[in-house]
Amino acid sequence: MRQRIALGLSYNGQAYHGWQSQPSGRGVQNQLERALQAFTLTEVHTLCAGRTDSGVHGIQQVVHLDTELDRPLIAWVRGTNTHLPPDIAVQWAQTVPDTFHARASATRRRYTYLMLESPVRPSLEQGRVGWVFRELALAPMQAAAECLLGTHDFSSFRAAECQSPTPVKTLHRIDIRACQQTSPLGRYWRFDFEGNAFLHHMIRNIMGCLVWVGQGLQPAHWMAEVLAARSRQAAAPTFAADGLYFVGPVYDDVWGLPSLTVAADHLPH
């Protein structure tokens, strides 16, 4: 009997050309479907909650698939992970009704950007944090972020290759905080975003503007001017993908799915 399975997985995106399957085979989706086919000995296709770009990491990517196989849920986790590379791992598996859809059932999506402020570039964290060498100021960045909350046309933060049918999205939350400073040489910053959906490169383009404001290159009210311009040329350059994490989708409680995975503990507070 056919059933629908939802999987939650985490991955380090440094070695991959984003989530979506690629002709080169270097999409995270390529790796997952190859592992699922090795585990099930059948052809398997997955649909995800949200695509990620090249170099972007996943804390809780959620996918669903349909199968005729009847396997214990833990087998979907361990069996699939046996065939995955070490930088991708299924965290949980759960049966869901046929009405569940990993993308369409998500009411919100969450991202986190980690930034290292230091005169010296990252080494151990290379590829897992963004980097600025000039000092950032919290209050101007918070004021600039306030301009973006609510429902707006985010064309100024949209990549040219974006395939979304509309640039109008709703940002529910942007939290910015400096993490506990452990070294006089620098500190980490955490930027949390939550919205109904995001345009291609939208967060990285917002990050570029927030960094300019935080470094005093633009005043906080400039962010509202960028938003109103509805032009990519009005905004700062796209910031690096290195520190961007897809924290995961938000679903209604009726589906009974985990909201986070243990991989979330990787992110500093």
Structure, described:
By secondary structure, the protein is α+β, with helices and mostly antiparallel strands. The chain folds into 2 domains: 103 residues, Alpha-Beta Plaits; 138 residues, Alpha-Beta Plaits (2-Layer Sandwich), CATH 3.30.70. The protein is 20% helix and 28% strand. The protein is built from 5 helices and 10 strands, in the order βαββαβββαβββααβ. Strands 1, 2, 3, 4, 5, 6, 7, 8, 9 and 10 form a 10-stranded mixed β-sheet that branches. Strand 2 and strand 3 form a beta hairpin. The longest helix is centred in the first third of the chain and has 13 residues. The radius of gyration is 19 Å and the shape is globular. The N and C termini lie far apart (45 Å). The mean pLDDT is 94.
- Hey, roughly how much beta strand do the residues contain? 25-35%
Average pLDDT for all residues: 94
- Give the second-level CATH assignment, the architecture of the largest domain: 2-Layer Sandwich
The biggest beta sheet reads: 10 strands, mixed
Shape: globular
CATH superfamily grouping of the largest domain = Pseudouridine synthase I, catalytic domain, C-terminal subdomain
Number of helices: 5
- What is the CATH class name of the largest domain? Alpha Beta
CATH topology name of the largest domain, in short, is Alpha-Beta Plaits
Secondary structure layout:
Layout: E1 3-11, H1 28-40, E2 47-48, E3 57-67, H2 73-82, E4 88-96, E5 108-117, E6 130-132, H3 138-146, E7 150-153, E8 168-178, E9 187-195, H4 202-214, H5 222-229, E10 244-250
Parallel strand pairs: 3-10, 5-6
Antiparallel strand pairs: 1-3, 1-4, 2-3, 5-9, 5-10, 7-8, 8-9
